[in-house]
From TrEMBL:
Belongs to the Clp1 family. NOL9/GRC3 subfamily. Keywords: Acetylation, ATP-binding, Isopeptide bond, Kinase, Nucleotide-binding, Nucleus, RNA-binding, rRNA processing, Transferase, Ubl conjugation. It comes from Heterocephalus glaber. Polynucleotide kinase that can phosphorylate the 5'-hydroxyl groups of single-stranded and double-stranded RNA and DNA substrates. Involved in rRNA processing and its kinase activity is required for the processing of the 32S precursor into 5.8S and 28S rRNAs, more specifically for the generation of the major 5.8S(S) form. Required for the efficient pre-rRNA processing of internal transcribed spacer 2 (ITS2). Associates with LAS1L to form an ITS2 pre-rRNA endonuclease-kinase complex and is responsible for the transport of this complex into the nucleolus. This is Polynucleotide 5'-hydroxyl-kinase NOL9.
Amino acid sequence: MADSVSPVRRNPGRSTWVRARKARPPLMLSRRSRHRLRALRWCGRRRLRRRVLQTQAAGADWSEGACPGPRAEAPQRPKAAAPSPAPRPVPGPLPAPAPSGPVSLPIPPVRAAGPGRVLLLLPADQGFTFSGVCRMTCLYGQVEVLGFVISQGQPAHDIFSAYTHSYLTINAVRYSMPEKSKKEIKREARACLRAHLNLEDRSWATGNFSPLCSIVLLEHVKTTTINFIASHPGLSTIFVQEEASQVTSECLVLGSVGIKREKRKRGLQLTESTLVALEELVSVSCEDSDGCPIVLVCGGQDVGKSTFNRYLINQLLNSISCVDYLECDLGQTEFTPPGCISLLNITEPVLGPPYTHQRTPQKMVYYGKLSCKNSFENYIDIIKYVFSAYKREAPLIINTMGWVSEEGLQLLIDLIRLLSPSHVVQFSSPKSKHMPPLTPDYVADRDGLYTKSKSRLRSQGFCLPEFSDSVEFADEEKDSPVLFAEHKLLSVFSEFSFRKTPRNRDSHNRIFRDLTVLAYLAQLLPPVPKPLSPLHGLTPYQVPFNAIALRITHSDVAPTHILYAVNGSWLGLCRILDDIRGYSRGPILLAQTPICDCVGFGVCRGIDMEKRLYHILTPVPPEELRSVNCLLVGAISIPQCVFKSQHGLEGTIPYITMDYNFKLPGASEKIGVRDSEKEQLPKGKLHPRSKFFRKMKFLKGKDHSSQPGGSGEGGAGDA
């Protein structure tokens, strides 16, 4: 029989738990009673993290590498006489005591470095996901944001992590370390921080510094675009983050900059197929010696095409100086207001949604509508015209529409044959419509809207050419042989999730378009720190009637109502080759919509009928305006908040009416319909698309807008 182990009697006044408490580190984070030692669960780790932050805010020494010394034993209190406790069972084996060495923080530590400044330490392979707007400077090491790598010594970059899109993450990048000791590395980091931080902040940073750690400075930033968008009701919360449910010292520190930490899963997540496609495209763009690759990105709606394009642009800019971008999506443009087909040369990283990086295109045509339905040929002709400006000096990224069914798929096949891309990136998603793989064989065997398949051309006796520089779609050449260039198909499976659903997609897209238009109008205002000025307080340009031609691109409007449609509308400022001089009075009306260069956009603030002048607000510089001789009015409208939030006006607001006449040509919701059905609004209700026909109080002389009449969205009917 085995020897039985007799229980060991212990002094009730000195239990095992007292000795275990003495082995704990001396840092006291609270006066709460100590619990039995055990492995910390998630709630315990969360409490420990909160106490660490509170101790940091109180100024306690919590630097990495600080070894706490032995804690002085507290004097024992006199024990009161008490009866002997009842015998209790022997406790089980004791857990290992807590380590007395430095405690590594489970999150990247942050520290306030002055008013509106935060110091962030990012260990290797860790990220910081946030919402809000800030200006980021990499003080030491390397970090990556949306594919763009920022190293120490580079200028600061503004980062826009708005809730309308996926939140951005600042990721620490592993960088090569020379053969140096830890002391030498810290001395080098301290030298890099000397120009940006004071002695106390430098000591904190170097005390928490570890090998391959990156040090980032986040600063509060305000731009004219942010201030102008946030000044409109309902849009102020796009950049201002909601308060956290539990306010901690970290929330207060980050809130001083205007950002808030978010969960990593709420940031941008790229699938494995996306990373493989990005790696191959970057490799081809950097190593291709025969010519610059042309990448066409296609797929359904809301599958992540635009996000992929931004990431690809940023990754290419890490290796090359510029990237060309051809915008063929009319409804959701990236660098220009909606309704445009444009070619841009991108030299700066794209670190935010489209309404935060409006750029000046190299060549642009104002199409004037959000969809190319019922006018495919004009859409193709404009793409050919804009694509002709591509010089093949940099890689080209082509963004296409999300319409990939029926005629949209045939149109996409025409674009592939016309533009001859070297790579086609096709997105698929469980929530999007099924789309057949656009392999070279599939494209060659299918008819487009204006081109025929290879098999049909062979049956008609055509000999296929081996090479052609371009493809022309003239009327007499639609049945002629075309080039079937081989491209490489990269299939990307997207798990991109967003708030959009088929039910609310239109409203979301309309909000994004309004934000883009507001961002363009913000260029009219003076830069910060000057205060914002209302648009009706700015001085417009005066343009004579006989110096410029007019055209409504999307609707059939009677000539007698053209000026009603132009007044208060979004205008494309274009230049045509026709000579319009020689007209004495005007206005000059064009019979057809020309394919011409668009130099920018403006707003017709009013029309002076006595002096026969257009009053136009535009941020286009005067040297560019000298060549403008045509105004195009399309279906793109000015956001309603611009008209409704005109501060400083009393009484009736200009361009707002409740007496909307649907009988006027161009006022119906159907394009070109002149005899619309009678439609009435409830008494006292504002029509959602009417903006005009009240006498403007901020113009001198008689105003043409004082007469009732006009049209729908954009002042010229509705698309």
